[in-house]
Amino acid sequence: VSSCTFSPNGKFLAAGLNNGDISIYDTATWTRIQVFKGHQKAVTSLAYSPNSQQLLSGSWDNTARLWNSETGLTDLILEGEPNKMRPETLYSEVAFSPTGQQVATASHDKSVRLWDARTGASVFVLTGSAGVFSSFAYSPNGNTIASTGWDETIRIFDTLTGLLVLESGSRDDFIMCLTYSLDGQRIATGSLAGRLQVWEVAATTLELRLKCIEHTHGITSIAFSPDDRWIASSSFDRTVKLWDSRSGALISSFVSHIDCVSCVRFLPTGPYIASASYDRTLRLWEINALRTGFDSHDTADLQFCAAYSPDGQQLITGSQKNPIRQFNANSGEVDFVFPDRLYNIYCLAFSPNGLQLAIGGSEETTVRLWDTHTGAAGHVLGHRGHVDSVEFSPDGRWIASACAEGKVLLWEVGTGQLQAEETIDSGDYGGNTVAYKPGCHQVTSCHGDGAIRLWD
């Protein structure tokens, strides 16, 4: 599988194959619903029109084709000049303009050509690279095209005149791929040496803002997420990586492919990334970081703990300064804010039936029980030090807690009474935590002395 792309409406995933076929998948069921046939060699690049009604493909058979997305029939065939049979006219990349009125193709004849999407007439030929163009991308407003080639230079052209408006050389590495952020303010590039770089687009130059080196081989494809928060990259090193586009932090690395990953794309309407590989697979990744509804990021607060309800429908968070909040796990919306403004919440635990929540923190040296439906306060379990960990027993009748000074405590949920207490001499290292063994009444505790203990 040499290329892939999602339709802008999020309904379809197209995959270009080395045999020239294009497979179309329904994203509602992830089943193949169509196969477009026409290319005679590998399909190296794919792009949907903004209205999702047409699909543009580039191939090593020296043609680019414009397809009707519904019927799978070819609307136009775009062929290079002057000799369409020359290997130098292999189409390495294709794109639709944001308006859908133009399409662009990059080929091995050292040019990027702009075409009228309705008639197939050639509009401009963009040149300037001393070598083959390796990648290009339209700006989100369609006014410019950024391109790069074997001469290690990024060029930006005016799409109305075809004139060069900006040129900036990286001069230290061959850039294999590039893309614009959706706000048009940044360009991300991937290099043969495995460098991911993010450039800020200024009036007369490109300012390098980030340089990330995690891939061990060349980067083959990059893409911004629909909200510009993340960047995905694929590589010859067989991995897909997810990055924070502002800080450059590596968020995740995906290593299931067994050959070069040739292309990576974000689903416009959901938390998924698609990757195409030379291992003959097209893989779909569900990325929790893309669930933008979960973003409760607060740079002025520290998030200490979180717990899912047993049915997975709620997520509770505890922090240093903010109230305890209950989120809808599907939408990410805040369903409930607990009324008491407790601080420094270090641990949370749901009862097995999800009806109670145990909250432990250092501010009041207590574990508090709450009704998760009404938010009503229940028993208060007093401790003599800050609480590090809390856990319900599998039957919901008991609570185990660990607090400062190496103490492990057992409480009866119904009465809130302390039933047992043990003290472990763990020195000054802290690190106290407890966990019930599933299906029984054994408690495991860990302490700063490096020991793990099992209690009946």
TrEMBL record:
Ranges: WD repeats: 1-35, 36-72, 94-125, 126-167, 212-253, 254-288, 345-380, 380-421, 433-456
Q: Where is the signal peptide?
A: none
Q: Which UniProt keywords apply?
A: Repeat, WD repeat
Pfam family name, one: WD40
Has keyword Repeat? yes
Question: What's in the GO CC field?
Answer: transferase complex
* Protein's UniProt name: HET-E protein
Origin organism is Linnemannia elongata AG-77
